[in-house]
Amino acid sequence: MLRPRTFLISLLVLPLAILVAACGGSNDNNNLNPNAPTPPKGPADLQIIDITVGDGDTLQTGFQGTFNYTLWHYDPAGADSKGAAVQSNVIQFRPGVTNIIAGVSQGVLGMQVHGKRRLIIPPSLAYGAFGSSDGSIAPNEWVVFEFELIEVRDCSVSTCNS
Fold first, then answer.
1. Three-class SS state of 133
2. What is the pLDDT of residue 23?
3. Distance (Å, rounded) from C-alpha 139 to C-alpha 39?
4. For residue 154, what are the contacts with CB-CB under 8 A and spacing of at least 6?
């Protein structure tokens, strides 16, 4: 008597389980939390825009550059795709050698001293799925940098910082 009842239950329960699984949901995490902000969509690839072409030495792989820079949140509706400013400073690094985000390392190569360049960087070349360590850049966020190259130093003939 148990076998026919078990068989009958399985005939009813199994199709219901398949139907519920097939109607399951989507992979859209916003359905789980409808108030979750959707990150702005930006360009799929690194965007390099020369604002001013320099007239001095050219930054090459292995050389060290000294830059003035500003970092903004990406905002497709903002002027030059810039949202709120995050930080401005002077930085010195060697593209391809110094541990810096890939979009910056790739984007500044070829600049000349006195040049100014805007970089619109997708998350895959910026701070990625985790965002910045200080929390100022959210996970999977596009960012905008502007760099002004102040000085280039050839590290094969002079001492450079890493």
1. coil
2. 45
3. 9
4. 63
